Amino acid sequence: MAAVDKAAGDLGGKKPACEALGVPRATYYRSRRPPGPPRQRPRPPRALDDAERSQVLDTLNSERFADQPPAQVQATLLDEGTYLCSVRTMYRVLDANQQVRERRDQLRHPQYSKPELVATAPNQVWSWDITKLKGPVTWSYFYLYVVLDIYSRYVVGWLLADCESAALARHLIAGTCKKERIEPGRLTLHADRGPSMKSKTLAQLLADLSVTKTHSRPHVSDDNPFSESQFKTMKYRPEFPERFGSQEDGLTFCRSYFAWYNTRHHHSGLGFLTPAQVHHGLADGALAHRQGVLARAYAVRPERFPNGSPTVASPAREVWINRPQPSASNTWRETDHERPAVAGVITKTITRAHLEPLMKTASI
Predict the structure, then answer these.
(1) How wide is the angle at C-alpha 81 spanned by C-alphas 79 and 87, nearest 5°?
(2) Alpha-carbon gap, residue 166 to 224, rounded angstroms
(3) Which of 153, 141, 157, 227 is nearest to 190 (CA)?
C-alpha cells in the first residue's frame, strides 16, 4: 500500500490513487488499520475434553492399532461395541500431535541426477543398448547389442546373440575399444540401467580401460535417445522382417543394415551426411562439394533462388544428451518493457502506462 501513499501526492488524493492502481479503497483503509489482538476461537460444546482426547490418542498408538488407519480402527471398535469419536476427529487428534503421515514404512527412492553429456568429436561419447528381435516362434528372441557414437551416429560395434549376457557385453565393448583405438581417459560410455549395463563384469572392464560410464535415470527413456532412435530406424526399414527364421538370418540382415546405415544413410541429424563421413573426418570435403554444386546451380538460374545464394546444412558442432537449460532468471533482458510483471509488484512499465493517462484526466 506504500504505492498508494506515494501516488496520492501526485494525483491529489487517495481516491484517484486507488483508482489508478486498481486498489479498492476499503482494502487500502483496512490495511492502514492497526491489527487487533487475535480472537480466541471458543471451544465447541461437543468437542472432546482433554481426557477423551488422550484416550483416543492412546488407542490409536496402542500395539493393536499402531499400523492401522483411523477408519479401520473405528470399524473394529464399533464391532466390539465401543465408540470413541468420528474418523475425522481421530485425524484431528493425530494432527495435533504431529502424527498425520504415512504410518507404514515406505521405500524411499533416491534422487538420480540427470546425465548431461556433450561430444564435440567422434569417439568422445558412445551410447549402447540392447534390443530384442523376434525369433521363429512365439516367445523366442535374439538379442542385438549395438554401440553408437553420438557425435557421428556411426555404429562402431554390434553383436547378435541368443541371450543377454554381461560377458557378451564385455566382449563387445573391449573389442570395439580396441578396434577404434580408444585412448585411456578419453571415452564416456552411456547406457540405460539394464542388468548387462550395470554388471560388475562390465564395470571392471571399463575401469581397466579408463572409460567413464554413465547411466540413464530409471524409467526415463529419453536419457538414451540416440540408441533408441537408431533402433527405430532399423525396425522401420521396409526389409525388416516380422520374425527371423534363425540366428543366421538375423546376422545376414544386420550385416546388410549396418553397412547401409553407416555408409549410405543420409542422416537428418548430420545435415544429411552419412555417419561414416562424419566419423572418419570426411564431412568438410562433402559439404564443400555440395556447396559447389549449389553455387553452380545459382550461377545458372539465380531467379530460382529468391532468398539469395543457397547454403548447405551442416552437422552440429556439439551433440548433447540432456543439454543444460538456462535458468529462468537469465531468459529476461533487463529492460522496462521486457521484464515480467509479478503479481503484487508495480513495475515501471505498469506505472507509466496506467498513471500518466489518469494524471492528465485528474489535472483536467
Answers:
(1) 70
(2) 19
(3) 227
Residues 312 and 306: beta-carbon distance below 8 Å: no
Give the C-alpha separation, 148 to 129, whole Å.
Answer: 9
Phi-psi map region of 92: left, alpha, beta (phi>0 left; psi -120 to 50 alpha): alpha
Joined together, the cell numbers standing for residue 18 give 486507488
Residue-by-residue DSSP string for 168-218 = HHHHHHHHHHHHHTPPTTT-EEEE-S-TTTT-HHHHHHHHHHT-EEEEPPT
What is each CA distance from 324 to 115, 185, 321, in whole angstroms?
10, 23, 9
Could you tell me the pTM of the whole model? 0.64
Cell matching residue 187: 571415452
Model confidence at 363: pLDDT above 80: no
pLDDT tens column, 14-50? 888 888 888 888 888 888 888 778 888 888 888 999 9
Helix (H, G, I), strand (E, B) or coil at 147: strand
Strand ranges inside the chain, DSSP E: 117-119, 125-134, 141-149, 155-161, 188-191, 212-215, 319-321
First to last CA, the chain: 26
Residue whose C-alpha cell is 524409467: 219
Return all residues near 298 (Cβ < 8 A) that are at least 6 apart: 305, 309, 310
Q: Write out pLDDT tens, residues 65-97.
A: 988 889 999 999 999 999 999 999 999 999 999
- The pLDDT tens digits for 118-136 are 999 999 999 999 999 999 9
Q: Within a 10 A sphere around the Cβ of 79, how many other Cβ atoms?
A: 8
Residues comprising the chain, all counted: 364
